[in-house]
Structure formats: C-alpha cells, structure tokens
Design a protein that fits this description.
heterodimer, A: mainly alpha, two-stranded antiparallel sheet, 2 strands, 70% helix, B: 529 residues, alpha/beta, Rossmann fold, seven-stranded mixed beta sheet, six-stranded mixed beta sheet, 33% helix
C-alpha cells in the first residue's frame, strides 16, 4: 500500500478555499507540540495567542493597526507574484517610503507649513517606494538579474540608510542622543479615526487599496494581463501581452504601496522616524499574500490573522514569558504549511494497493 | 495449453503453428484515477512479425507500449515474455531481456556527437572506441548511414531518428517497438525505413509498429491490433482490410467527409510575404531565408515539411510574436505590418492558431471565457474602457461550442480539462468567429481525433469559401492534399515555390521536403537524405 499524489483534471475551488484553513490547523497542532516542548501549557499559550487579543477593544484596534501595513504591502506583492515577478524586498521599499516621507516632516518641523504636508509625504513616499522597487525590476528586464536576490539585498541598503539618517543628520537635538527624529508636527501626522484610540486613517486607505485590487484583478483587462503572464507566459505573449512591461508595472505598484505603508506607519502609530519601525512587515506580508491566496479579500482576512499573531505574541510574552521570536517561528511554519497545502488544489492524495499477484510473479 | 489458447484466439494469418508468441499481454490493465487507459488488453506478438498498433490519440497505444517497455507498471494483468510471466522494473530490464524501443520524441543531446549519444544510452561495458566501431558497423549493415563524430544539432530529423534506431539495434533486441516513426520523415525516408524494418523481420525479430497512417500499415504490417477508448477492438490482417474499414474500427463509426465548396472564387491578395529573412532567437533555431509568397482571399495555401525546418519561426514572424525590421516583409490586407505587434495584426483582421494547444494557444488553467478574451481582447468588443465584458466572452464560448460541437462538462470549464480535439475545435472556433481576413494555422489537427479533425478541416474550407485567406502548416500530406489549393514546402528555413495541389505528388513533395530541387540542374546542390 502506498500513498500517491494524483493530478486532478481541474483545479479544485473547494480546496482552494479550505487549504489556508488546513494550513492554519496544522500550524496550531505544530505550535501546541512546540509549546509543550518549551514547558508551557499549550492551551493557555494558544488562548493568549488567539483568544485574548480578541477580547478587549484596545487589542482589537491594535490588530487593525498592525494589519494595515501588512495588507497594503501584501496587495502589491500579490500583483507581482501573480505576474511571476518575485519581489522579496518589500521591507526595503517600506523603509525607503518611510524615509522619503519623513524628509518632508523633518524639513517642515516647527515651521507653520499648511495641510499640504501630509498629502505631500504620502505622495513622495509612494514615489520613492516605486522608484526603489524599479531598481530590481529594471535589472531583471535589461540584464536578466534575479529579482529575488536584488530586491532582497536592497532591503539592507534601505535599513542602513535609515539608520544613518536617524543617528546623523536627522537626529533630534533634544532627544538625549537616542537615534530618532523629533516627534512629527500635527500636520505631518496621520489623523486618528477615534479620538484617544489607536485606529487611524491608514486603515481606510488599506481598505480602498483592497477594493481597487479586487476590481483590477476581477474586472479589467490589465488584471487579466497580470494573471495570464504569470499563469501561462507563452500564451500571454500570443495574446499580445508584454511580460517585461508587467514586471516593471507590478514592481512599481507594489513598491509604491509598500512605501505608502511605510510613511503611514511612521506618521501614524510611531509618530517619528527611528530604527526598528517595522517588525518585518515586508517579509510577513509575503506570508499574508500567499495565505490570502493572492486574492484581495483573502489578503484582507490573512492580514488580520497575521496581525493577531503579532499582538498575541506580545500578550504571550507578557503573560507567559514565551519569547517573542516564537511569533516568527509561528509565521514561518504557517507559510510552510500554506505552500504545502496548495499542492492539494491541483493534486489529491490516493491510497494505492499494488497488484499482489503480479508482485509475487516477479520472484 | 498453448495450442488450446491458439484455437480460442486465432492469429489472423495462421503462420505461427507450433511456436509460442515472443510476447503476450494477458488482460493488461492500466488505471489512472477513474480513467482506464488500458482495459484488459490481450495482444500476442510473434517472432518474424511486423505488428501494427492502431488507434486514435487517447486510444491507449502509448500506455500499452510503456507497460511493455517497463516505463509504467500495469494495474492488473500480466506480461509474458517467451512464455514466462515477467515484471519489468524499468526500461533497462526490458532492454536486457531484448525489448528495444524508438520513441517518437527523441532523447538526444544536441551538443554531443552521435557516438557520445549512443554511449549514453548503452550500459557501458565496452570501451568508447569499440563502441564507436560497432556503431559504424551496425549502421552500415542496416543501411542507416551515420557519422559517429558529428554533433547531433547538425543532423536532420531523419538522421536523428537513425541514431535512435541504431542505438536500439546495438543491443540486438528480439523485439523492437517504434512509436510513429514516419511522422517526422519525408515519403522517401519512410520508404528507406521500411526496407530496414523488412530486413529486421527477416532476421527473426518482431516489431511493434505504432501508427495511424493506414496505407503505411497495409503495406508494411502482417498483423494489426486496433485499440479504441482503452479497449482492444480487434486483431486482424491489415492486408485483407481496406483503409476505410480500418478507419471505421479505429473511430467506431463513419467519418464525416470534408467537402470543398464548388467554384470557390479567389479575390485580391490578403496576405503577402516579401523576402522575409529572420535570424533565430535561440541556439539551434532555424534562420528564415528569403521567404516570399502571396495568398489571395478564398485560397488555402498549405506548407508542408519535416518538423523543425523553420515552420515555428515562420509562424512567429507572421503572427508578430517576433517582429521583422522591414515593415514591408509582411503585408496584411494591403497594409505593411512586419513591425506590428500581434495585437495590431489582429486589429487588421488576422487570426492565428498555433501548434501547441495548451500553454501557447490557451492558458491551460484558465477558463474558456478567459481564453476567448486572450485573443479576442484586441478587436471583438470584449473590452470597454479597460473593463472586461464577461457576457461577451461567455457568448464567444457558447457560439464556439454550438458552431463547432465543442464537448465539455460544463459551460465554462478550464481549458486543460477539455480533450485535445475539443480544445482544438474551441481554439479554431474562437478565431473563426472573429471572422478573420487572414487565418494562419499551424498543425490544425495534430493529435486530434478523426471526428474533430473533419470538423476543423471543414471549418477552414468554409472560411476560405467566405473570402478569407488561409495558411495551413502541416506535416500531414494527406490533410494538405484534402484542403489546400496550393502546397509549398519548407526546408532549412526556405520556402519552395507553391505547387498546385493536383500537381503536388507525394514524390515531388518528398523531394522538396528532403531539400532537393525539382529542377534537375539544381539537384546537384541537394542536401539531406
């Protein structure tokens, strides 16, 4: 008896919907074992991770705040991945957007600049993110350089640039030598949705991005182009679609969205530019994109779920002294299971009993 | 016991009295999921026999020979070799028992020499020098001339096939399987192959010959086993059958006859190609050289030739997947379009059907409606201000389904879930419904069942009758004879002068396909076999 993978004649839509849930289930089983090995009560740990954050208003708001950059970045990444362009450097584009937008905030600090400051910051951040993403895209199209490597390497360049700026030219003179800019002026800050709460305008922008992506992919010829180029490159060329143009376009869009997410994070919840503004949003968004099946609505749900793991991780650390790195382990295991379960969309498991008689005849 | 079985299962020509079959399959069954590729097939192969395995695509021929050659394990049933039941662990065990196979798709390394390729396929007990010497000897004995030192990429398709055959013969097989060996040969090369096969038979070897060319089978084979839908239909003597009766057994019914409309009028030139030359874009690709022809409305021009002589490159240049520098090289309906993209050419009224259905003509994992959009977005009112009109794409699917009898499980399935014939009907239908001025189609019925092939050929004839110019590239000379008004031949990236179909005998076409010129004074420059 053996277990074989058998190709389905047509992709299974039911499994396509269920596979992320199977992946989450398998991840939770694995985490239970992991918690047990760490000597923690698995039930309490899971409760701290997944239930506790959902029980008070502050945590719920915080989940939406954390989900905002994840969803925005993941939407951009999903366009790239659908078009078979592998942007792994969203983290870098996020940081560059944060830096570029902060430039306006830093330069207008203490002046009586008007309401144009925040919109200008958003536009500049998106532009900078797009331009930064175009570097690997153009290297790919012109020279055939692997965009996976170049986009990833540029993350560290952006990280170090940010580090240099907040330790050098942009450091707050009254900041006790901490590597941070001064707090942004109110005109350079993303407004809150609820007075005294955490939820900010960025979450609305993220929802608009989700809606726009859903329309783009489902209804427009450009979205169709993106899907065909990724699914069947030769057929796409036969259809008259240019794969290189789409690599440029999807990288630019995803860079712009990552850059926008970056400045919203800095000008919103953080309030100033400093190192460590991202707990790895750009990388976690890759998991969000795949967990959400590269589908805008799916990404919205997946983004909220991954945000829950961030908040849950913090709660588990406080309540049970579980290291925060366990959150990253959790996210890694989740991505692993998501990709593994995806094979079930095109294949199914089958038990095969080889013909005993024939086998004996071999002797 | 043997004799008893012989009486129950009489071999058609009664030549085998007192012997036992070399190879016998008993109830051989292969199951893929719910699909029965082979349904308890009994076949006897005798020494000194050329045994044809006939059937349409998907009838189960390949599955059966793969099981016999040890590439797959049968789900049930047994294989008996010289009377003993065997289980083959893989092709190397089959080879060591004396079963050889020549595949339709060659497994050769282009950048290695003939001798190196043969060495890679052998078990490697003898030195390379001895092996090369034996290679030359075997190729000489059987009249399959080969230079062991030449690199494969320099060789013609016919020569490449010789490598595969010689490689199989060097293991001195008792039983040789050939999968559609003449599909890639000119008629003259096929004749030479038949001489070799007769000789192998005279030496006492058995040959299993997979084909769907019925005249060939009648001429060459002693026995024919016909498969249909995974089942054995009959074993018979093909010489006592007519091509029509064999076809009926293969198809399981009458094949609709294709009729050209009487008195078709040719009009103005709609597709003109002027001195088109194009360097290949990949290593070992074919350079197109000075291709010129003129195709009028109402006319079907056939392009014959052995695969790999520039047909793919010509299709790419005509469709606009590759652009020419000089706009005047491709003229569509009077407009110089050599520098136009495929979308612009479609807007001029051109339509294209590539050879590869899945992955080129369609995106396999996308729905038919999306695949209608793939080529229809340019000019069929399916897109308004960047937004897709889903109703219009579905309408194309429904129309193609109805007009061309596309059979599918639901209204809008994925392209990959359709059978080859039904998908090809959809693709051809999708283009014809756009009412094109010019249709360029490559291998329209390759790997398609006879019923679908008839529908497609009829559609091409009807389109021409309605005034379109149709260019058909095909390796199937019978198909071109049936539908084309004129036939030209591609060889080494050049295109011959078209011949009127009534003048285009197999001999003439065969000479052109082998690179000879029809004019005697130029025949001295002939290249190839």
């Amino acid at each position: 008896m053996q277990l074989v993978l058998e190709k389905r004649t047509e992709r299974s839509n039911a499994i396509a919907l269920v596979s992320p849930l199977i992946a989450i289930g398998l991840t939770i089983v694995t985490m239970t074992i992991l918690f047990a090995i760490l000597g923690k009560n698995p039930l309490l740990a899971l409760q701290a991770y997944f239930i506790a954050p959902l029980t008070d208003g502050y945590s719920l708001q915080e989940i939406a705040v954390k989900a905002t950059p994840l969803v925005m970045i993941a939407i951009g990444l999903s366009l790239c991945y659908l078009a078979n362009a592998w942007n792994i450097g969203a983290e870098g584009q996020f940081l560059i957007g944060a830096v570029a937008g902060s430039w306006i905030a830093v330069k207008t600090q203490g002046t009586d600049a008007g309401a144009w400051v925040l919109p200008a910051m958003l536009v500049l951040a998106a532009t900078a993110g797009a331009l930064y993403a175009l570097i690997p895209a153009i290297c790919k199209v012109k020279f055939g350089a692997s965009e996976i490597l170049t986009s990833l390497m540029l993350v560290y360049v952006a990280d170090l640039l940010l580090d240099y700026l907040v330790r050098g030219p942009w450091r707050d003179p009254n900041g006790f030598n901490f590597p941070t800019t001064a707090e942004f002026d109110p005109v350079a800050t993303v407004p809150l949705l609820i007075e005294g709460g955490r939820l900010h305008l960025g979450s609305i922008i993220a929802l608009l991005v989700v809606a726009a992506a859903a329309i783009l992919l489902g209804r427009t010829i450009k979205g169709f182009e993106i899907r065909v180029v990724g699914a069947a490159p030769r057929a796409a060329r036969f259809g008259g679609f240019n794969a290189n143009q789409l690599i440029i376009l999807t990288f630019a869009v995803s860079g712009a969205l990552a850059g926008l997410a970056g400045i919203i994070e800095v000008a919103g919840p953080v309030g100033h530019l400093q190192p460590g503004i991202s707990p790895g949003y750009g990388f976690t968004a890759i998991i969000v994109a795949f967990l959400g099946r590269l589908n805008p609505i799916g990404i919205l749900i997946a983004g909220l779920f991954l945000a829950l793991t961030f908040i849950g991780g913090e709660q588990a650390q406080i309540a049970m002294k579980i290291p925060l790195d366990v959150t990253k382990v959790f996210q890694g295991i989740l991505l692993f299971y998501v990709l593994a379960c995806d094979s079930l969309i095109l294949y199914r498991f089958k038990l095969v009993f080889p013909n005993r008689q024939v086998a004996r005849g071999a002797g | 016991m043997q004799a008893y079985q012989r009486m129950l299962d009489p071999t058609p020509n009664g030549l085998h009295s007192g012997e036992s079959p070399l190879l016998r399959t008993v109830g051989l069954t292969k199951r893929y999921g719910d699909f029965l590729a082979n349904d308890s097939i009994d076949v006897d192969i005798w020494p000194k026999e050329i045994h044809a395995l006939l059937g349409e695509n998907g009838a189960g021929k390949s599955t059966l020979v793969k099981a016999i050659y040890g590439l797959i394990q049968p789900s049930a049933g047994e294989i008996r070799w010289q009377g003993d039941q065997i289980v083959l662990s893989g092709p190397s065990e089959a080879r060591s028992r004396g079963i050889g196979m020549v595949f339709q798709h060659f497994s050769l390394f282009d950048n290695l020499t003939v001798a190196e390729n043969v060495a890679l396929g052998l078990d490697g007990k003898e030195s390379f020098k001895d092996m090369s010497a034996r290679l030359e000897q075997v190729s000489k004995i059987y009249g399959l001339p080969l230079d062991p030192r030449r690199e494969v990429w320099q060789l013609s398709v016919g020569e490449r096939q010789r490598i595969e055959i010689v490689r199989a013969l060097m293991q001195d097989p008792k039983f040789l399987i050939l999968d559609e060996p003449t599909a890639v040969l000119t008629p003259q090369e096929a004749d030479q192959l038949f001489i070799v096969l007769e000789r192998l038979k005279a030496e006492g070897r058995a040959i299993l010959y997979i084909s769907h060319k019925l005249e060939e089978v009648k001429r060459l084979c002693d026995t024919a086993t016909i498969l249909r839908g995974g089942k054995k239909i009959q074993t018979c003597n093909p010489r006592l059958e007519t091509a029509a009766s064999l076809a009926r057994m293969m198809v399981g019914g009458e094949i609709r006859e294709v009729k050209a409309a009487a008195g078709r009028q040719t009009t103005i030139p709609r597709l003109v190609v002027n001195d088109l030359s194009l360097a290949p874009d990949e290593a070992h690709g074919v350079r197109l050289e000075h291709i010129s022809f003129e195709l009028k409305g109402g006319e079907i021009l056939g392009i014959a030739g052995v695969a790999g002589n520039g047909q793919d490159e010509l299709f790419a240049a005509l469709s606009g997947e590759r652009l020419a520098k000089d706009p005047g090289t491709v003229v569509i309906d009077g407009i110089a379009a050599g520098h136009f993209s495929i979308t612009k050419r479609r807007k001029l009224g051109a339509a294209f059907v590539p050879e590869e259905r899945l992955g080129h003509g369609t995106a396999p994992r996308m729905k038919l409606s999306e695949n209608a959009l793939l080529t229809g977005h340019a000019a069929s009112g399916m897109v308004h201000r960047g937004f897709i009109d889903t109703a219009a794409t579905l309408k194309t699917v429904d129309q193609a389904t109805e007009t061309f009898d596309v059979r599918k499980a639901k209204r809008d399935p994925e392209a990959a879930s359709l059978s080859g014939g039904n998908l090809q009907k959809f693709i051809v239908g999708r283009e014809i419904l756009r009412n094109p001025a010019v249709l360029v189609v490559s291998q329209p019925t390759w790997g398609v069942d006879a019923g679908a092939a008839a529908v497609i050929r009829q559609a091409l004839l009807d389109l021409a009758a309605a005034g379109a110019a149709v260019l058909v590239t095909s390796q199937d000379l019978d198909e071109l004879a049936e539908i084309a008004d004129r036939i030209a031949v591609m060889f080494h990236g050049r295109l011959s002068e078209p011949l009127a179909t009534r003048d285009a005998t197999r001999e003439k076409l065969g000479l052109l396909m082998g690179g000879s010129s029809l004019e005697p004074k130029e025949a001295a420059h002939a290249v190839g076999a």
